[in-house]
# Entry
Amino acid sequence: MPTRKKIGLVGAGNIGGELARIAAERELGDVVLFDIPPKENFAKGKALDLEQNGSIVGYDARITGTSSWEHMAGADVLIVTAGIPRKPGQSRDDLVATNLPIIRDVANNVKKHCPDAFVIVISNPLDAMVYELKRVTGLPRERVVGMAGVLDAARFQLFLAREAGVSVKDIRTTVLGGHGDDMVPVLSHCTVNGIPVRQLIAKDKLDAIVDRTRKGGGEIVGLMGTSAFYAPASSAVAMAEAYLKDQKRLLPAAAYLEGEYGYKDLFMGVPVVIGGKGVERIVVIELTEEEKGMLAKSAKSVQAVVDVVKKG
Ligand SMILES: NC(=O)c1ccc[n+]([C@@H]2O[C@H](COP(=O)([O-])OP(=O)(O)OC[C@H]3O[C@@H](n4cnc5c(N)ncnc54)[C@H](O)[C@@H]3O)[C@@H](O)[C@H]2O)c1
# Structure
């Protein structure tokens, strides 16, 4: 008899709760919301609230809360949000001291309890945390990926759509590089349903949009006092769904590079194809000289945080 897929969410905070809701509403599988022992009842409470929500919205998914890794065993997908988010004035890299031991703890448990899962990391600083999770678990690069590009591209897409006066559905964009303020929104491949965006929006406006995209996370932290969670959760669910349904979606995501784009032993945002085998392919696209320069700058920033992680 076929059984439902199992989605393990490591961290039952703002993003974790939203992930659980969307995964259940899309009936991707049963959901286990995990958090540390002091937050076990909080995770259980969120899970129960969401199960009751299913009676109204009408989804068939079991949602449970736990602080025991044994309950995560057999997960098909794990989405990791464990750690603290930014506060106003902080950069993502400021989180490394707090989130590194958390990611190591999570990684050791993934290795022990969920060695067959497809793992999507969200915790910041993203590119360094996903690097560390792969290093500790020893999982193949097909099964460890970082979520950032889908979110950054969504922000870019929204700002472009508003400026061009068109639907967000008609904008095609990608954002490469590290999930930091020097990420690379790729204007050379950005279109409004095939029409190069440069034909529709003036250069000074595009420059302002690129800048706003790069600082898009900080803009929300400044407004709310904590990180965004609706769009980050939707982004990670799109990646999980691509894996669970073998959709072969081409999405920007932090993947482990082994020479692609000229970088090695580094996680960074690149276009990948996600399907039933995980990260099935890294797609290398042509970039302008200016974009290559921006990518090099971004890679340098990522490497600097990874170097801190390697020493820590
Ligand atoms: N990659 C991205 O694009 C992106 C976007 C937004 C936020 N983030 C990051 O995602 C992370 C989570 O954000 P949030 O808003 O959900 O934070 P949150 O504080 O609401 O939730 C984080 C949860 O992790 C839990 N946790 C701590 N240690 C743990 C451990 N060892 N095992 C399991 N759970 C543990 C905490 O108890 C908390 O409930 C932050 O690091 C944030 O910076 C990333």
Summary: The chain is about 45% helix and 20% strand. The chain has a mean pLDDT of 97. Residues 289-311 form the longest helix (23 residues). Residues 10-16, 34-36, 39, 81-86, 95, 99, 102, 105-106, 122-124, 126, 147-148, 151, 179, 226-229, 232 surround nicotinamide-adenine-dinucleotide (CB under 6 Å).
